[in-house]
User: Fold this.
Amino acid sequence: METLLTPTLELDKEGYLKNPAQWTPELARDFAAKANIVLTDKHFDVLNWLRAKHAEGVPLTIRKVGASGIVDIKKFYELFPGGPLKVSSKIAGIPKPASCI
Assistant:
């Protein structure tokens, strides 16, 4: 009988996924819930954009998100309060951007 093992998530000391390949939409919802955020389609638009840019090796900044055409900076802050780039990166399963303290 074969058993399916759920891989253990490896997180860094700040709670970011060490392996972005382990990310799933369900995991994003769990991370978001811990930040008191209920994800909408617009959230996922931003998260998917962040993941794509990270995969391309693009250094992420709030200005780049604002220039993405997905959300403006004001909406980015509304969607991910309390440090939008930091919070959204964690939910997206990517490392904390170097531009974040």
Q: What stands out?
A: Helices lie at 25-34, 41-56, 62-66, 73-79, 84-92.
